[in-house]
Amino acid sequence: MNTARENEDGWLSAQTLSEALPFIQRHSGQTIIIKFGGNAMGDEALTRAFAKDIVLLCQCGLRPVIVHGGGPQIGSMLKRLDIKTEFKDGLRVSDMETVGVAEMVLSGAINKSLVAAINQAGGKAVGISGRDANLITACALNKTLGFTGKVIATDISLIQTLAMDAFIPVISPISAGQDGKAYNINADTAAGVIASALNAARLMLLTDIKGVMDKNGHFLTDLSHKDAQTLIDDGVATGGMIPKLETAIRAVKDGVEAVVILDGRRPHGLLVELFTDVGAGTLIR
């Protein structure tokens, strides 16, 4: 004789899905740019969870575009090859040898592993770099940073072509200069430029910290772009947070509805941020 048993987990899951419906309807059809970086990229379980979340976003009608970093992995490879490296204001100083290693790591191993994870989860991901189809044209940011570049032009036609057939672009920020040489663009910066060019509704910067902190170490949930600039000017934001906030400021000024800086180490942060009313990071408008 079979006895029916209530599955509380099942009921809770159904309730969660029901509560998410208004948020899914709100974001359906929107282009969301997601920068995936930090230590989360070195964790296979987190990468698999991220890949499943990306596929779920697609199933809910969103159009995700992923730009990835890989600073820790580049650092590990440089150390393995006994190549010294240094940072200035959160940006890596890149000579010809360093940018060659960065391209090998970013456009090679990291890009293809992330594409594979998304495809295994049921998505249709395609790996490209800023070099492909003149997606990002760059030049030297300044002489002291070598081949660390700044964006001077974008051509989003390749991304638009992929999106029309429901492909998920996965973009390495290595870009080409007008001189034909490779330039290492900060991944946050590349994501911001692409978000602006695509008129994205959201730019999500996944990193390895909870979000933006004030001078006392307190977590900030909401900022205006003026608040973000003040954190930079007052020296509260340091290191890698500087390019993140600069990216957020430029993006919202260029018409991106909002930028969110959130912790990529926590599984399903994207879903919490987009499909609930509690949020998962620092929202900058």
Structural commentary:
The chain has a single domain (31-284), classed as 3-Layer(aba) Sandwich (Carbamate kinase). By secondary structure, it is an alpha/beta fold. α3 (71-80) packs across α4, α6 (187-197) runs parallel beside α8 (241-253) and α7 runs antiparallel to α8. Strands 5-8-2-1-11-15-16-14 form an eight-stranded mixed beta sheet, with helices on both faces. A four-stranded mixed beta sheet has the order 7-6-9-10. It has helices at residues 8-27, 44-59, 71-80, 96-120, 157-164, 187-197, 225-233, 241-253, 269-275, and strands at residues 31-36, 63-68, 87-88, 91-92, 125-129, 136-140, 149-154, 168-172, 174-177, 182-184, 202-207, 212-213, 219-220, 222-223, 258-263, 281-284. It is globular, with a radius of gyration of 19 Å. Residues 1-5 have low confidence and may be disordered.
Distinctive features:
285 residues, Carbamate kinase, four-stranded mixed sheet, 23% strand, disordered N terminus
Within the largest sheet, what's the order of strands? 5-8-2-1-11-15-16-14
> What is the CATH topology assignment?
Carbamate kinase
- Over the alpha carbons, how many angstroms does the gyration radius reach? 19 Å
Largest sheet: 8 strands, mixed
Strand content: 15-25%
Number of domains: 1
Based on the coordinates given, report the CATH architecture. Answer: 3-Layer(aba) Sandwich
Average the pLDDT over all residues and give the rounded result: 90
Poorly predicted residue ranges: 1-5
Query: Which oligomeric form is depicted?
Result: single chain
- By CATH, the superfamily comes out as Acetylglutamate kinase-like
Question: What is the terminal separation in angstroms?
Answer: 59 Å
> Helices and strands: which structural class?
alpha/beta
State the shape.
globular
Number of helices: 9
N to C succession of SSEs: HEHEHEEHEEEHEEEHEEEEHHEHE
In CATH's first tier, which class applies?
Alpha Beta
Count of distinct strands: 16
Q: In percent, how helical is the residue content?
A: 40-55%
